[in-house]
Amino acid sequence: MSTIQIGEFSAYMAEPQGTPRAAIIVIQEIFGVNAGIRQKCDNWAKLGYLAVAPDLFWRIRPGIELNPDVESEFQEALTLFGQYSADKGTDKSIVDIEETIHAIRARGVQKVGAVGFCLGGLLAYLTACRTDINASVGYYGVMIDQLLGESHAIAHPLMLHIPTADHFVGPEAQAAIHEGLDNHPKVTLHDYAGLDHGFAAEMGSRRNEGAARLADARTVDFFANNLKKPCRLLATPVRAMTWGLDIVPAFPDHLARNLDDNGQPDPGNPAITLDIPCDDIGSDTHQRHRKNEADHQDAGMFAGGAGHRKNIVEAHRNVRDRDRPCGGGEAL
Description:
Distance between the termini: 17 Å
């Protein structure tokens, strides 16, 4: 666990043991990168993720840490949020989050998700709208109802946790969110009946243990499903009649290529690669491919006539991911 510098701002970073399975950007509440946000980063690192929490109040007061259970600090946070909003803070924070995405990918971790709380829930929504983040989760995000016009730009999965008794996001705002996002193909909404803002705080009086565990388990599964690396399959030769492709084991240089009639690489034809998500291994789709393989072998479909070109597709298992489960998870 350490503090790193990203451009002009600092960020708390928690690293897992070994190679990260992906990265999670943890987006602060109005209380700064405090002990609760750092604990969430540490929890993600224990699950194998690189976790980074950028200081998004750095333009107002760098390094701010406030406790929502202390009334004077709670009021101070509201004052800071007013200054932040007046300074178009959300727009600037999205720039900071995008810079954080780029910094993480520069470290070699390409799959990046974001999870935010309160103000961070709004920023997680806007991150899904305005950046190429791979997946986003927002807890009790404020003011999302006022920015639903950007939802058409959501290209990657987004999940929102909505407590129905949130005194910062009233019934009308919640109804607008449901009306605007219920039918969006990339968005999943979860309601938590009777719960208030901050129910999934890592510590303090706002936390509801049962609901926090439920929401966090959903978030863990969501990221496990949407941030996993693609696996490649080692296949025996198969003639796919629809595509006109022969699938064969990988060449030593791990490149997909086309062969001419003599079985030699033909640089004149474009190469093709085939990535299959890990969960598709053993799926109905995968089993249908295996059945087609057997049917085509029985039918003697591998013979090529004169002038016939075979498109050869590499399909090999990524050995680095062989021992790592591709899905599932546990509660934070």
